[in-house]
Amino acid sequence: MISVIIPTYNRHKTIAASVNSVLNQTYRDIEVLVIDDGSTDDTAEIIQGITDPRLIYYCSVHVGACGARNLGITYARGEYIAFQDSDDIWHADKLEKQLNQLTVSNGDIVFCKLCFMSGGSVQKMLPQKLKTGVLKETDSLFHIGTQTILAKREVFEHDFFNEKLPRFQDLELLYRLSSNYKICCLDEGLVDYVIQEDSISSQNGKLLSACEQIRVIHPQLRRRNPQLAKDLSWILYVTSAQERGTKDYRSYLKLSHYYCHSVKYCVIRGMSLLGWNYGI
To answer: Which residues contact residue 168 at a Cβ distance below 8 angstroms, ignoring those fewer than 6 apart?
Structure first.
C-alpha cells in the first residue's frame, strides 16, 4: 500500500480537486491522509463530503506544512509514502508509473517532473536537466518538488522534514537522504503545479534565511555537490537583482558568492555591486 500525505491550510478552493486526483489514481491500493494544519475555513466539511474509505482526515494545531507532513509520516501505514500538495493535480497514472520506475531502477526514492501550467497548457517542466534513471552523486537536487516524490517507508524512519527551514525543505531532506539512499528520476511530467499568491516559493523574504541555514547545517555541500551549490548561488543572485536597493541586497550577493565563487561569478557579482546589470 502507498500512503499519500496531503498537508492543507485554508485551501477550500483547491483541496477537493487535489484529493480527487489522488483518489482517482490507476494504482488503487492507497490511503490518503489529509493533515489539516489548523484551517479556519470550511476545509473539514469539504473533505468529509468526499465519500471514499481510503480517505482519512486528521485535524492538527497549526504547525506548518512540513510539520503536517511529519505528522502524516508517523500516521502512515503503507509500504511506500508519497506527498501531494493541496493545490496541485496529479495525473492519473502517476503512482503506477513511479512505482514501476522504482522497481526497475532498484531505487529507494523516485520523483517525476513538475509541470508549470499557464492557460491550460504546460509552460515548462522541472527539473529540466535530469533524465530517467538513477541520479549520480553530483546531480543537482534543485527543483525536485515534494509533491513529485514517492519513497520506501524505511527512508523516513530516521529522517524527517526540517520544520525550521522557511524554504527548500524538500531539497534539504533529499540532500540528507542522498547519502544513504538511491534516488531515481522519472522523466515525465505527472504533477500539474499552480503557484498561489501565498505560496512559500513566491516569498523572496524566506530565501535568504533558508540558504543561510543550509550553509550552516551542511558546510560540506559545496564540495560534495558543486552543481547544487551553483544552483543555490544562481537563485540568490537572481533574487538579489529583485532586491536591489533594499537592506538585504548585498547579503544575497555575499551568500551567492559563498555557494559558488568561480572567476566568472566573482566578476559578475562585482559588476552588480557597482550597479551594472549583468546576467549569468
So the answer is: 210, 211, 214
Residues 152, 250 within the same domain? no
pLDDT in tens, 56-100: 999 999 999 999 999 999 999 999 999 999 999 999 999 999 999
Flag whether 278 is in a domain: no
Beta-carbon contacts of residue 106 (< 8 Å; ≥ 6 apart): 182
Cα 277 to Cα 87: distance, rounded to the nearest angstrom: 36
Instruction: State whether 174 and 42 are in the same domain.
Output: yes
Domain that holds residue 235: 204-273
**143-156 residues labelled b (16+ CB within 10 A) or e (exposed):** bbbbbbbbbbbebb
Secondary structure class of 192 (helix, strand, coil): strand
C-alpha distances in angstroms, 64 versus 140, 162, 197, 248? 26, 11, 17, 25
CB 64 within 8 A of CB 42: no
End-of-domain residue from the set 152, 170, 198: 198
Same domain, 60 and 165: yes
Is the pTM above the cut of 0.85?
yes
Alpha-carbon distance of 80 to 131, in angstroms, equals: 23
Query: What does DSSP say about strands 30-36 and 2-8: parallel, antiparallel, or unpaired?
Result: parallel
At 250 the three-state DSSP class reads helix
Q: Look up residue 106 and give its three cell numbers.
A: 532498484
